[in-house]
Amino acid sequence: MTTATASVSGVRWTKKHLLGLEELSADEISLILDQAAEFKRLAAEGETKLAALKGTVVANLFFEPSTRTRTSFSLAAKRLSADTVDFTASSSSLSKGETFYDTAQNIEAMGVDQVVVRHSTSGAPHLLSKLLKASVLNAGDGTHEHPTQGLLDIFTIREHRQKLAGLTVALVGDILHSRVARSNIWGLKKLGARVIVCGPSTLIPSHVERLGVEVSNNLDEILGECDCINLLRIQFERQRSAFFPSIREYAHFFGMNGDRIRRSKSDVLILAPGPINRGVEITPEVADGPHSVILDQVTNGLAIRMACLYLLHNRRQEESP
Amino acid sequence: MSTTLIRGGRIVDPSQNIDRVGNLFLRNDRIEGIDTGAAVADHVIDATGMIVCPGLIDLHVSLREPGDEKDETIESGTAAALAGGMTSVACMPDTSPVVDNRAAAEFVQLQCARAGHCNVFPLGAVTKNHDGQELAEIGQLVEGGAVGFTDAKNPVANAEIMRRALEYTRMFGRPIFNHPQVPELAAKGIMHEGYYSMQLGLRGIPAGAEVIMVARDIALAEMTGGHVHLMTLSTAGAVEQIRRAKAKGIRVTGEVTPHHLALTDAALQNYDTNFKVDPPLRTKDHIDALIEGLRDGTIDVISSDHQPFAEEKKQNELDSAPAGVVGLETLLPICIKTLIETGHLTWSKLIAKLTINPATILGIQKGTLKSGHDADVTIIDPVTAWRIDPSKFKSKGRNTPFAGWEVKGRAHTVIVAGKVRHHV
Fold this sequence. Notes:
The structure holds two protein chains of two kinds.
Chain A lengths: L25 H19 L12 E6 L5 H12 L3 E6 L11 H10 L4 E6 L4 H8 L3 E7 L5 H15 L6 E5 L6 H12 L3 E5 L15 E3 L2 H4 L5 E4 L15 H8 L3 H5 L6 E3 L12 H4 L6 H26 L2
Parallel strand pairs in A: 1-2, 1-3, 3-4, 5-6, 5-8, 6-7, 8-9
Chain B lengths: L2 E11 L4 E10 L2 E5 L8 E4 L4 E4 L1 E6 L12 H10 L2 E6 L10 H14 L3 E4 L15 H6 L5 E2 L8 H12 L5 E3 L4 H4 L4 E2 L2 H6 L3 E2 L2 H17 L3 E3 L5 H12 L4 E5 L1 H5 L21 H12 L5 E2 L8 H4 L16 H10 L6 H6 L3 H7 L14 E11 L18 E11 L2 E5 L1
Parallel strand pairs in B: 1-4, 1-5, 6-7, 7-8, 9-10, 10-13, 11-12, 13-14, 14-15
Antiparallel strand pairs in B: 1-2, 2-3, 5-16, 16-17, 17-18
């Protein structure tokens, strides 16, 4: 067992909660990325179990189904030696009519230090952060933000390209309903990347250009300019009415396939936050091909979540000596 | 036999184009006259420095009884109305059960009489159980005291039903109040569709959802000759259409709330459910258009759209929390802040929108200080500063977006049928 070193890049982490990338500075984002890189390096050297969070409790509060993010957070907390408790909507008392607030208070009363929360309503983690003494980590709120996913996407790009500044990154697909898109946009813009959002006009929210992104409805037109293409999942569960005529038509215009890869930059990186709909946003040929960094994203997600838990924990330590 | 003299106040009665300092005399439950009355009165109220006007009328209030007495009762709601300066309120039929029959309308008035605070005029349902399918027993409801008809926050979505309702109520000379919003465009929306809804990831309600329904209702009012009253307007497009319709002589009236004048969609950035209202808070451009509509008379009335909810209902995620805020006790100071202090409206114009205009829409003999009318009088202290503190509300609802606001002006003395019912 070993303890990881504190701040890597000389910037101090001061935030109590991690609610979104909107509120983070470029330095704070870089600090998380550097810390994650350090954890990844330690893991590669066989240091997979660190003592940093020993004696603390991390609660995973998942009000919306999720396997990947929950597992990733849970493993990240365990690697830092925290005790973890998992609450999911189906297993908790939520189904018995208890309010969101009461559930959270009850969990806090068990002596939880950090609460990882996933919720189908945008802003739910913000509400919790005002009600609880624990630190709140947003693990995805409605269609608002999914900061650790944004961070791991950016980390993966940085790992392959060393820097973000000057790169062109396309986010393709359902921007309207995507919390991953919003977190990516905030993070990528802050680190100096050029961002294009691309999808059918029904799935690109109006005013999105005010976030500093370019808008395209034609993937083939922008293919040649992109250093990285992040293929967002079509969220069938969030669509209240038909945003496009058929999956076949969507795949025809916006799906990433072998032909489109051949017309992209030779070193293009293909990302997908997953879970992917094979044959819709991405063909198996691309998902499993040489440009795909999809599995790197999953690996990096663990390091990013360790970094977030670690930085928030250190800040708590400073607060209560 | 009892006489009251309200002495030395600035009497503002838009129904008679009066705005001057004078003495108002009351005899028993009636107005006796301005500057003419008994030389010696039984009661004298010094109103120096105050505004003396007809009792304020709020034509859009939900009192929640029967059914949701945890949120509000007719007793607590009418006490809140008095504290806010209202002597009469028209209450929504969106209770449980719905006021869609004569007995239900009579129950509301019975509870109002038991409470003994202000006057309550029930509004009846347009359709049975607000289902939007079959007309409620509108004629029976009129006999039971209903002064207008509405499905409250449920827009009358079916144009055929709305047409028949306008035709049928014409026979009784009663208005239909509609919540102008196309349900399909507003479904599950939390806030105004615009920059902030995009940024916050909250489902939007486009301005067009209101504009389309306003256009439809105007067309139906023109076609039927019925009177449509469009509730809680929030968009520039609606104001523009009503302005044109009025110029053509179509029987359409409109209302706006103080919160739609004082707040924008940017308020949702803190994800506070006290800013979730229906229709949603919109942008500065829309507010400017609403104010212009108030100035030129396109918008007739300012109402509170009082929507009390128990704390546990609002202390929830935005998706599951109900839309609406309490408004009875903050209407007056917010109007002063947004309309008087800014110079948008004169006191006379503001008071018209709180007295004679709502009375005219409801067809009730109120909202005036003419001799012989009911002695419902509100004395407003227009200058004293205070801080809005929800814990001091008479309403059971604490769900206000204005908590902590420093404001000026409030109801000083409220007289209903010649009796002082509220006094600061």
